[in-house]
Amino acid sequence: MSLLEVTDLTKHYPVRQGIVMARQVGTVRAVDGVSFRIERGETLALVGESGCGKSTTARLVLRLIEPTSGTVRFDGQEVSGAALRTLRRRVQVVFQDPYASLNPRLRVGETIAEPMEVHGIGDAKSREARVQELLRLVGLAPFHAQRYPHEFSGGQRQRIGIARALAVQPDLIVCDEPVSALDVSIQAQVVNLLKDLQRQFGLSYLFIAHDLAVVRHMADRVAVMYLGQIVETAPKRDLFAAPRHPYTRALLRAIPHPDPRRRGQVTPLGGDVPSPMNPPSGCRFHTRCPFVQDICRKEEPVLRDIAAGTRVACHLADTLPPFEAEIGEGLS
Ligand code: SF4
Ligand code: MG
């Protein structure tokens, strides 16, 4: 049984117009039929360009917003009613912006202790001891508990956010772009901290990111989202070595190659992301896909197994040229 099982999740927002917003003129399909699982101790990275529905998916998993349809099962239980309380403790979150996510009027110790208070864990004295322990776990000196968020750097604030997420001993932490707001030099430290904590406590992560270089360090498996849907899921190694979906290939070509001899071969992703209000017919990627055929404009491809652990939503997934050949390996 998977720790988290998300099935056919959708979030549609009505778009209204008029003086009293009475007239519905369309529907934004922010998340449109998303399914995935996360196993215990595993990191699933959810990647894609901004606006593809990653953060909305994260908020649906956390039940910060209600889904339009679909289910979330946590540890075998469908999340609703009484199970929601369990979810609120066992699934924690680390947000992107360590400047905005900490209450500036609370001392760091209070911020970290707050989830324990909310869930009625321990008394004031034991919570204080736990705060000290948590600060040490994230690499900060215990005396920092008395300080305020503004006295810390971005990287330190993100460590505080991680300590707060750990306070109630969660099984799963949703990390929504946890290092995107940090300097590159600090990013690796925070990613390594998350990995250390995962090993120590057997944590699972839903790791939201647009930066594939970070995902390469962090993920066990990757799910690629485009316009509210997952278009490819694969073990990390397979996804980076042999991406199947044309969108995944385009994303990979847009980052510097880890092999310095091939650093020059960076192709920015062309074209604009279409509106999620009127997504293209058939395959949503067809307006930007170099392999597009007639069928792509007419029929929506479904996510299907095409290799062990790899699922792809593309009509031509079995017939595309290998990724290496496509970018002309051997030319450099
Ligand atoms: Fe490209 Fe067609 Fe595959 Fe969509 S289904 S990704 S348009 S080849
Ligand atoms: Mg986002």
Task: Describe, in plain words, how this protein is organized in 3D.
The chain has 332 residues and is of the alpha/beta class. Residues 328-332 have low confidence and may be disordered. The chain has helices at residues 54-61, 82-90, 108-118, 124-137, 154-166, 184-201, 212-218, 236-241, 246-253, 294-298, 323-326; strands at 4-17, 23-38, 43-47, 69-74, 77-78, 91-94, 172-176, 204-209, 221-226, 229-235, 304-307, 310-312. Helix 4 crosses helix 5 (154-166) and helix 5 (154-166) runs parallel beside helix 6 (184-201). The radius of gyration is 21 Å and the shape is globular. Helix 6 (184-201) links the parallel strand 7 (172-176) and strand 8 (204-209). Helix content is 31%, strand content 23%. The protein has a domain at 227-332. Iron/sulfur cluster binds next to loops.
Secondary structural class: alpha/beta
Beta-strand fraction estimate: 15-25%
Strand order of the largest sheet: 6-7-8-3-9-10-12-11
Uncertain stretches = 328-332
Radius of gyration, in Å, reads 21 Å
Largest sheet: 8 strands, mixed
Number of helices: 11
Shape label: globular
What is the first-to-last residue Cα distance? 46 Å
Order of helices and strands: EEEHEEHEHHHEHEHEEHHHEEH
Helix content: 25-40%
Which ligands appear in the coordinates?
iron/sulfur cluster, magnesium ion
Average per-residue pLDDT, rounded, comes to: 92
Number of strands: 12
Protein name: Oligopeptide transport system ATP-binding protein
InterPro entries: AAA+_ATPase, ABC_transp_ATP-bind, ABC_transporter-like_ATP-bd, ABC_transporter-like_CS, Oligopep_ABC_C, P-loop_NTPase
Membrane topology: Peripheral membrane protein
Domain ABC transporter: 4-252
